[in-house]
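REQUEST FORM: STRUCTURE PREDICTION
Request ID: SP-0412
Submitted by: Lab K.M.
Chain count: 1
Length (residues): 360
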Amino acid sequence: MEKRRIDDCEPGPVPSPRPVDRFGFVKQEHGSLHEGVIKSRSAIQFEREERRVRKWRKMIGVGGSDWKHYVRRKPHVVKRRIRKGIPDCLRGLVWQLISGSRDLLLMNPGVYEQLLIYETSTSELDIIRDISRTFPSHVFFQQRHGPGQRSLYNVLKAYSVYDRDVGYVQGMGFLAGLLLLYMSEEDAFWLMVALLKGAVHAPMEGLYQVGLPLVQQYLFQFDHLVKEHLPKLGEHFTKEMINPSMYASQWFITVFSYSFPFHLALRIWDVFLFEGVKIVFKVGLALLTYCHDDLIKLPFEKLIHALRNFPEDAMDPDKLLPVAYSIKVSKRLEELKSLYEKQNKKVVQSTETNGGGYNA
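STATUS: Completed
RESULT:
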């Protein structure tokens, strides 16, 4: 039977217009606290945002021409401004600059088009199956086989050909989808390459390889950090037999883009692209810190629900992120990584010995 491709499909009907928020997501019936805050501050926010945009434009130069020079001269200023949030109108460009993807794009002209047009992927049917599950409430991705879904398919298909060892895994759709809301297909593709192959920070491809090896390492590290930073909560989790794989896997696999409020996910991504994965650990610990007194009272079933559905006030970037920034994890993450690798090595050696892995 001939393989069905998304390019062969006619676009479905355009969904009926419904009110959307400033990011393009269909609004819920009830207005959120965050929306109310935005409305009440709108005039002041607009003025402040204009000033921030002017500062950022001066910092990055035309098309990013001054960026590298500015980062070398004033790294602390750049870090502080990124932590405050990149202006939305410049986010796509700045993400490409801080991730190293702009350089990859310039060094590989025509490669994306070649992957898309001349190569086939064994993951095509899996990608088509999952596309409608990626940001289903965003107007760009709602039309079946529409422009958004086609772009998402193209980026994921191209990556699955580019890196056949990783291919395609469902969580990758949220990374590609988020990027496509701020940049072109080709730009989004190269940013995925920069992240997974490690253009600036440690490679992320282990999040999506068979057995999810990097997810296992991150969960091991996070489990230890919870017990060290929040000992009473860590003890409660042990008592209720809760481990991070039950609630934190998606935090790492999608970098909070799967089920967290979009305005918070964007702020986390700003920092993630500049500082690396440690922000995911910091935000996770900050969430548990913020909700500590409630979580410590809950039995297993309610605890699982609470860890997957944090209250709205805990999701306010201006409250949560300062807590996250105050938590120091870099040195400990390195120590825990070494510990994890040692333990894993022992397990592998033990399995090979017991399983007759060596010839007599």
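NOTES: The radius of gyration is 22 Å.
Reviewed by: T.R.
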